[in-house]
Specification:
Elements: H1 7-30, H2 34-53, H3 65-69
């Protein structure tokens, strides 16, 4: 004879497996490791600091270009 299966446990196991499958797909699509996040943050911060330290103070756009055309 066949083994007796508890349907409540079967349903829970099936739902858990579906959630795990969905989580695995999301990790592939959206996931980045902690190291990747830190590297991207540090690279962006380094670029921002470089731009801020090399800003030319005399060449700021005034925004009055449209007023001069009329």
């Amino acid at each position: 004879m066949a083994d007796v299966v508890n349907l409540r446990l079967f349903r829970k196991r099936k739902a858990k497996d579906a959630k795990e499958q969905s989580a695995a797909e999301n990790r592939i699509v959206f996931g980045r490791t902690k190291t990747e996040k830190q590297f991207e943050y540090k690279a962006s911060r380094k670029a921002d600091l470089f731009l801020d330290s090399n800003r030319l103070e005399g060449n700021q756009p005034s925004g009055d270009d449209e007023a001069d055309k009329t």
